[in-house]
Every structure is written in structure tokens, then in C-alpha cells.
Design goal:
The protein is mainly alpha-helical. It has a domain of about 240 residues. Helices cover about 50% and strands about 5% of the residues. The strands form two sheets. Strands 1-2 form a two-stranded antiparallel sheet. It has a two-stranded antiparallel ribbon with strand order 3-4. A hairpin with a 5-residue loop joins β1 and β2. The longest helix is centred in the middle third of the chain and has 24 residues.
């Protein structure tokens, strides 16, 4: 029975994994966010509009189908984190904790069976993951994209641990959460993330050479294949933030060393598999595939590659250079955004366009906004594209990253 279920599940997993990069934000009735200007200090109106919006968005009822990986609930955590960095408004941090607690409660080994939890995976066990497959699947599945869920939750922990002035303050508790103060809650997030890495990631997805590969049978999704780059970066994102949390806690240098080495090896592996070329304007760019042996990378998945590289670069210790980031930014701005077909930007990293994931966008995905921190001359362009697309009013992840970068530029004195 289990083997038959795995065969059926294989196609479902492919669909679930491959859909992970689609923009899921939909315009709804309710509070609207605003960006009053792309210059100057972030305004009180911009912050309040963001707060009104997130207060209107509840945590998801279930956590399967990668909703916490790339869906709006996961991206909401990133949005809250960036806006908390801008405002230091604890209402935003508390909302971030609310989403994080809900995500923790929705983990497969924690969630009640009546709500889709406690499902067996291809390992034959109930694993500490957020299933990528729908609840209707006879056998659940998850992969290294679980690292992205950890990254979102650990962002909450990192922000708390970076500010000792709030550590002892009391916070509200979710029925399944642990820790009545900010610091205790952050420590619990970190402990649980270590558990997921130890129990799920390290035994199944890390080869002896420390590169991220999928396991063989009975795993039905890409057995023995190298992890696609976008999924690889989802895991490095989680490891980067987990390392940062342990550094702030000063509690586990051996884990910091282990996690940092995994990030370094896999980021270097990605860089080694890029091919240099020049844009039409002569800037250095990269071409690369979706995975080690695969089709060329589309701009849907490229968004996660760029985010992962930026987070590793911003951490400052993984061998990602400013030139690396400039090359990646050039690829997006001077190749992807430089070409349009039927009102959409290029769908592949080489500037061509296809269908499906390679069909291109008429807006800038939130992950790409980080690249405007590298190519500072492109920030206004990004802002204008987002305004024209109508995304600002209802896309928390886009609006928050725009405002975060606006604030970063203002504080740095960028005109």
C-alpha cells in the first residue's frame, strides 16, 4: 500500500514543488498599504497602513502545499521582519510572533491529525516538516524547502535576540508555543529549528561532501538528484539565520561552524556552475541552469537564487563577494528587465522568454528588490514598476521590502 501511494505521490510532489515560485498575492477588499514616496524617511502613514494590513490577515488554517515556504503566510513573516527593522514597532514584532507560533503549531509532528497533521512521510515516519503535498495525498512529502520555513521563523528569533532590552518582557502564548518572554520564545524557535535540521535535513539531504542532494528510493521526488538552486538557497537561508541566532545566543560554536560550512560549500557550488557573459550594455552577468543538470534557469526560480545569495552576502562570512552580487544584479536589471514581450519582462536569465515559469512578469518579485541594494541606480525603476503593477496596496512582501530599502538608503544618505 505504501509503495503504491509513493508512486501516486511522485507526480503530486513534482506539481507542489514546481509551483513554489508563483506569486500568490491576490487583491482583496480591506486595508491598503501605501508607499508615499521612494525618497526620504519612511513615514508614519506608511507604517500604520502596513500595520492595518497585517492585522487583517490571519495565519493559515493548514500548513501544507508549501504555504509557509513561498506562499503569502511565509512571505508575511519576511515582510513583518523588514518593517520591524524600519520602525521598531513592537506591534509588528508581536504580529510576526503570532505568524511564527502558528507555523510552529502547524508542523506535521505537532499539528493534530484532525487538522492534517501527524501524517506519514516517505520515510514511514511522522517527521518534523511542513508537507509540500496536499492533505489528500496518501503519503505526505517534504524536502529541503523546509529550510525556508525555518528561515522565516528564525528571522523572528534573530530580531528578538538582537535586542536584549526586550528579552524579559512578557508576551502572549499560543497554546502550543513555549516561552513566556521574548527571549524564551526566541530560544524555543532556535531549539526547534536545530531539531528539524538534526532529524530531517542532515540524515536525508546532505551528502558526505556537504552538498545538498535528494535521497534515493523510497523518496519519490528527484531521487538522487542534486537540489535545484532555488531549493538549495531555501535551505541555506535557514542555516544562515540559525547560525546568526546561535552567535547572538553565544551558546553553540560547534553548530555555528557546522552550519556555516554547509552554507559556504553550497553557495560555492552554485557559483562554480554559472557561466559568465555580458549584457547588451557590457556589464558582467551570469547564465546558469535551474539545477546542476537541467534546463536553463527561469526568472521565476531565479528570484529565490538572488534572495539566497543576498542573504549570504549580507551575513558577510560565506565567500559571497560584492562582485558576485553585482553580477547577479546586472543579470536581473540589464538582461531580464531590459527585454519585454507582450508587456512582460524576460522569462529566462539569458533574456529570452518561454511559457509557464519562464513566461515572465510585469512586476518585480519581492526577492529581487534586494538587488536594488546592490545596483542602487535601479531602486527608482523598481519602485515605479511596482507602482504601475498595482502590487503595493496588497503585497506585503513587496511593500515591506521597498520601504525597508527606502529606509536603508535614507540612513545611508543615498539621494
Amino acid at each position: 500500500m505504501m509503495f503504491t501511494g509513493l508512486l501516486v505521490l511522485g507526480s503530486l510532489i513534482v506539481q507542489a514543488q514546481e509551483v513554489q515560485v508563483q506569486e500568490t498575492e491576490k487583491v482583496t477588499k480591506g486595508p491598503k498599504m501605501v508607499v508615499e514616496s521612494l525618497k526620504g524617511k519612511v513615514t508614519g502613514k506608511e507604517i500604520q497602513a502596513f500595520k492595518n494590513y497585517i492585522d487583517s490577515v490571519p495565519a493559515p488554517k493548514t500548513h501544507d502545499r508549501n504555504v509557509m515556504v513561498y506562499g503569502n503566510p511565509g512571505k508575511m513573516l519576511e515582510a513583518c521582519g523588514r518593517m520591524y527593522e524600519v520602525s521598531k514597532d513592537k506591534d509588528i514584532l508581536n504580529r510576526m510572533i503570532y505568524y511564527s507560533d502558528a507555523a510552529m503549531a502547524g508542523r506535521n509532528d505537532v499539528e493534530d491529525a484532525s487538522n492534517g497533521g501527524r501524517r506519514l512521510l516517505w520515510t514511514g515516519k511522522v517527521e518534523p516538516v511542513w508537507p509540500s503535498s496536499p492533505s489528500s495525498a496518501s503519503v505526505a512529502d517534504a524536502g529541503i524547502a523546509t529550510g525556508s520555513v525555518l528561515a522565516h521563523i528564525l528571522y523572528t528569533a534573530k530580531l528578538i535576540l538582537a535586542d536584549s532590552s526586550i528579552w524579559s518582557e512578557k508576551i502572549e502564548s499560543h497554546p502550543k508555543s513555549v516561552g513566556g518572554t521574548y527571549k524564551e520564545r526566541a530560544e524555543w524557535y532556535v531549539k526547534q529549528a536545530d531539531y528539524v535540521i538534526d532529524t530531517w535535513i542532515l540524515p536525508h539531504y546532505v551528502r558526505a561532501d556537504q552538498k545538498f542532494y535528494f535521497p534515493g528510493a523510497p523518496n519519490p521526488y528527484k531521487p538522487n538528484d542534486a537540489a535545484p538552486w532555488n531549493q538549495l538557497f531555501m535551505l541555506t537561508n535557514g542555516l544562515v539565520r540559525l547560525s546568526q541566532c546561535h552567535v547572538l545566543l553565544k551558546d553553540s560554536p560547534e553548530r555555528v561552524k557546522q552550519y556555516d560550512e554547509l552554507v559556504k560549500v553550497n553557495v560555492s557550488w552554485f557559483k562554480e556552475n554559472t557561466t559568465a557573459f555580458k549584457s547588451a550594455t557590457g556589464t558582467p552577468c551570469w547564465k546558469f541552469n535551474y539545477a546542476l543538470v537541467s534546463r536553463k534557469e527561469d526568472t521565476n526560480h531565479f528570484a529565490y537564487d538572488s534572495e539566497g545569495m543576498w542573504l549570504a552576502w549580507d551575513a558577510g562570512k560565506y565567500g559571497v563577494t560584492l562582485q558576485d552580487m553585482t553580477t547577479m544584479a546586472n543579470t536581473y536589471f540589464d538582461v531580464v528587465l531590459a527585454k519585454q514581450t507582450d508587456g512582460r519582462f524576460a522569462g529566462y536569465v539569458d533574456g529570452s522568454t518561454g511559457v509557464g515559469h519562464a513566461g515572465g512578469d510585469n512586476y518585480v518579485r519581492d526577492e529581487y528588490i534586494y538587488l536594488a541594494d546592490i545596483r542602487k541606480d535601479k531602486f527608482d525603476l523598481v519602485g515605479q514598476i511596482e507602482k504601475a503593477s498595482g502590487k503595493i496596496a496588497q503585497s506585503a512582501q513587496i511593500t515591506a521590502r521597498l520601504l525597508w530599502l527606502k529606509d536603508r538608503r535614507f540612513k545611508a544618505g543615498v539621494k
